[in-house]
Sequence to fold (79 residues):
Amino acid sequence: MLTDIVKKRKSYISMRQAGLYNDDKRLQKVNLTASHQNPSALRAYKDLNTEPMGEVAEELLHTNVYVDRMNLKLGVKHA
Fold:
């Protein structure tokens, strides 16, 4: 059973890595290599009257939360 959980976890990690890699390649083709270059993000900064890494952006858009996912069980819903 434990080996099945480890295999599933590795499979999910591999799929996530592949997805992120494909997203990066797609965005590089249209010269969106940083999140603050995204038109939606630029619109949010403009609407909030701030800029990337500005004080308001730091307060509202960025987090300092770190979640340790090493001990999460696959298939179990967490709150």
Residues 36 and 42 are 6 Å apart (CA to CA). The helical segments are 2-29, 39-47, 55-61. The mean pLDDT is 81.
